């Protein structure tokens, strides 16, 4: 059994959900190393966005500012999440933050443990449906075929929640200025780490993230109209 201990400064959220700064031999607050134990920070195919945001929230929860300097400022954990997300809602950021990858595989599809023991259902499963839907959309538009067996880098660029992921995918090389990143999808991907901050289930955390995002977007739109009343008058004249 591994011997576990936490060192100052530290913070607990849920069972096996804690993080602190690792200090060897002596306490060193100038050049600290973030120590994660039992925290859902490592995810398969996690975007740079997820890793950047999650780690930023962890540092703030530990009492560090954006320059990794220890402060005496006490922050509410819920407010830490909202303050961090608000920086990414209406601002432009490097596309690299939102890049994901997937393999175009027609013969194999990841299955759940439940499906693994259901042999009949497992035999019927084939291919990565998300990527197959993406390829189908490309074929409809007459775009170049993708080579099976390869990994492709993409960004989700459709904000309609009713559209499936395969239809939202855009290859990084084909992403244009007219495409809009589906930031809400990326925000929702933080639901597991946010659930620890909110002390709730991942499903409830997802609802709170979605509600906050919509409120912020609506507030930004209203603020834009307040600063540019001529645009709203122009719309009224059209009607």
UniProtKB/TrEMBL annotation:
EC top class named in words: transferase
One Pfam family, short name: DNA_pol_B
Protein name (record): DNA-directed DNA polymerase
GO MF, one annotated term: DNA binding
InterPro entries in the cross-refs: DNA-dir_DNA_pol_B_multi_dom, DNA/RNA_pol_sf, DNA_pol_B_thumb
EC annotation from Swiss-Prot or TrEMBL: 2.7.7.7
Domain DNA-directed DNA polymerase family B multifunctional stretches: 3-196
The entry's keywords: DNA-directed DNA polymerase, Nucleotidyltransferase, Transferase
Organism: Gigaspora margarita
Keyword match Ribosomal protein: no
């Amino acid at each position: 059994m591994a011997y576990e201990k936490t060192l100052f400064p530290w913070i607990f959220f849920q069972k096996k959900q804690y993080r602190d700064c690792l200090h060897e031999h002596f306490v060193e607050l100038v050049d600290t190393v973030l120590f994660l134990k039992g925290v859902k920070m490592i995810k398969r195919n996690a975007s740079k966005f997820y890793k950047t945001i999650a780690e930023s929230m962890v540092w703030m929860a530990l009492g560090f500012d954006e320059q990794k300097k220890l402060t005496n400022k006490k922050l509410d954990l819920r407010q830490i999440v909202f303050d961090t997300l608000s920086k990414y809602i209406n601002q432009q950021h490097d596309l690299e933050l939102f890049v994901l990858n997937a393999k175009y595989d027609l013969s194999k599809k990841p299955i759940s443990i439940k499906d693994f023991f259901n042999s009949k259902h497992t035999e019927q499963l084939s291919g990565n449906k998300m990527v197959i839907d993406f390829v189908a959309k490309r074929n409809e538009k007459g775009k170049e075929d993708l080579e099976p067996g390869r990994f492709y880098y993409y960004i989700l660029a459709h904000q309609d929640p009713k559209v499936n992921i395969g239809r939202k995918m855009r290859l990084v090389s084909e992403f244009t200025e007219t495409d809009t990143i589906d930031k809400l999808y990326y925000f929702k991907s933080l639901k597991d780490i946010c659930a620890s901050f909110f002390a709730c289930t991942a499903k409830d955390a997802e609802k709170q993230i979605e509600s906050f995002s919509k409120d912020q977007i609506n507030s930004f739109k209203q603020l834009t109209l307040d600063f540019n009343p001529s645009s709203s008058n122009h719309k009224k004249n059209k009607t």
